[in-house]
Amino acid sequence: MPPPVSLEGNGEMLYARVVESSSRVAATPKRSEKVALFADLLRDVVPSAARTVVGLLVGEPRQGRIGVGWATMRDTRNVAAADPSVSVDEIDRTIAALAATTGIGSQGQREHLLATLSARLTEAEQRHLYAVLTGGMRQGANDGVVSDAVARAAGAAAADLRRATMLLGDLGAAAELALSGASLDVGLSPLVAVQPMLAATSVSAADAVALTGPASVEWKLDGIRVQAHKSGDTVRLFTRGLNDITASLPNVAATIAALPVDRVVLDGESLAFHDDGRPQRFQDTMSRLDGTAAFFFDALYLGDRSLIDDPL
Question: What is the mean pLDDT of the chain?
Answer without folding.
Answer: 90
